[in-house]
Every structure is written in structure tokens, then in C-alpha cells.
Backbone:
């Protein structure tokens, strides 16, 4: 079993985020750059759908996609009171179709797991079917800037309702030619004195800036809008930037 199979623990582990502030920023991205009015927003790798309530409160209908059944069941139950009621779908991010169309899409915390160029192509083909022309696709921490992928480590501790979660992240580039890196997420849980430990090892392919630009330019259905750091539209990324939590916006043509 992985931490992803325990949605309540996962939710505590990532609770350091300011969800209201992030929902405000997503709304401002829509107001600035969307070419169409937005009613339905679509999250890739939605997990427990932490932004669902904040986005519904701002007048949107929320739709989430995830491949983990436990996460989906948890989110469906947790957000059953919201109106309009959120929509959830179980599918892999590189192969989904026949979903209701959306006016805005987003993926958080680098959760775009695409291990080959073919998988990236398949993902954007799926997104082109779901997103209406003029809508935005917001990618958080999905494009890798600078040399930080060589090795990185961090530690976070969070606590909610007596459940304490310590997370340690180690990231390293393991195949420079293949742009593959490895993430090791070690999580120690203290649930009112009951202790559990999880260690997740995931391999992912880094998407570098120039490659991403060329990929978008090669497509006829998306266009590049811009990229910024620290979730701040006053901080566009340029070649001299030391980037922190980069975001990227593309628009469906």
C-alpha cells in the first residue's frame, strides 16, 4: 500500500498550501488570459480535490480526474455537499476520453507524470478533446528550470486533528540522456500514537523549458501564453531567473 491509498494522511501531508490564495490565483489567471467565459474547471491528478470547495465557492463547477480509486471515493464523499456537485472520473492521464468539456484545466505540484514524448503527446491529445477552444491549461511545477533536478532534498511536517505527518523528499537525476529523475518520498505518520511509515519511489521524465516550447509550437491545437515563478504574474521567468515553483500557461486554440 502507498500513501496515495490513504487519502486522509495524504491530505495532511500536503496541507501546507494556502488553498484560498491558490484558488484566487487560478481565478486571476482565468480573468487575465482565458479567451472564453469559464464555468467548469478540470483538475488532472486531482487526488482528494483540495481546491474543490474554494473553486465552487467562486462560482465554478469542479471536475477531477485521478487513477486512484481510494482518492476518488474519498473526494466524492468529502465534497458530496457542494453545489453544483463535483464530477469525478477514474482514468490514467495519458488515456482518457469522452469526458464533459471543460473551460479551464490545471495540474498541481508537478503531478504530470509523462515518461516519454509519446505519453506527453497522448496527454495533450486528450486535453485537446476535453478543453474548449480558448480555454487555458495551467501547469504547476511541471516544467523543470535550472539545475535543481540534479539533486534536491526537503523536509516538511504538518498536523491536522491530532494526525502528524513528516515528509522527506529526495529528488535526483538518474538518466540525463533520457531526462529521467527519481523522487523518493518518505512519510512518517503519527495518528494519535499509531505509527506508520510509507516510502514511495517514482520515476518521471523531466520536461525542460526549450523542449516544452518546441512541443507546444509543433501542435496546431495549443499555444504558449507564458511562464512565471512563485505564483506571481509580476515575476515572469527569463534566462537569468532563479525559479521557485514555476507555473506555465498554455491556451487551447
Residues:
Amino acid at each position: 500500500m502507498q500513501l496515495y491509498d490513504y487519502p486522509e494522511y495524504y491530505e495532511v501531508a500536503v496541507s501546507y498550501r494556502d488553498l484560498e490564495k491558490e484558488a484566487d490565483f487560478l481565478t486571476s489567471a482565468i480573468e487575465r488570459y482565458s479567451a472564453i467565459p469559464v464555468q467548469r474547471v478540470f483538475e488532472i491528478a486531482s487526488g482528494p480535490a483540495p481546491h474543490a470547495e474554494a473553486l465552487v465557492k467562486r462560482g465554478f463547477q469542479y471536475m477531477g480526474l485521478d487513477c486512484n480509486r481510494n482518492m476518488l471515493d474519498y473526494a466524492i464523499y468529502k465534497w458530496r455537499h457542494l453545489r453544483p456537485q463535483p464530477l469525478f472520473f477514474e482514468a490514467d492521464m495519458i488515456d482518457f476520453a469522452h469526458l464533459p468539456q471543460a473551460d479551464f484545466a490545471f495540474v498541481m505540484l508537478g503531478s504530470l507524470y509523462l515518461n516519454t514524448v509519446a505519453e506527453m503527446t497522448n496527454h495533450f491529445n486528450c486535453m485537446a478533446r476535453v478543453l474548449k477552444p480558448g480555454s487555458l491549461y495551467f501547469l504547476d511545477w511541471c516544467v523543470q528550470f535550472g539545475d535543481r533536478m540534479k539533486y534536491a532534498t526537503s523536509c516538511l511536517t504538518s498536523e491536522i486533528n491530532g494526525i502528524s505527518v513528516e515528509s522527506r523528499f529526495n529528488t535526483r537525476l538518474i538518466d540525463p540522456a533520457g531526462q529521467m529523475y527519481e523522487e523518493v518520498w518518505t512519510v512518517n505518520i503519527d495518528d494519535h500514537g499509531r505509527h506508520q511509515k510509507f516510502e514511495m519511489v517514482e520515476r518521471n521524465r523531466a520536461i525542460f523549458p526549450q523542449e516544452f516550447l518546441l512541443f507546444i509550437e509543433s501542435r496546431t491545437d495549443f499555444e504558449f501564453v507564458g511562464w512565471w515563478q512563485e505564483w506571481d504574474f509580476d515575476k515572469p521567468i527569463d534566462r537569468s531567473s532563479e525559479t521557485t515553483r514555476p507555473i506555465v500557461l498554455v491556451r487551447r486554440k
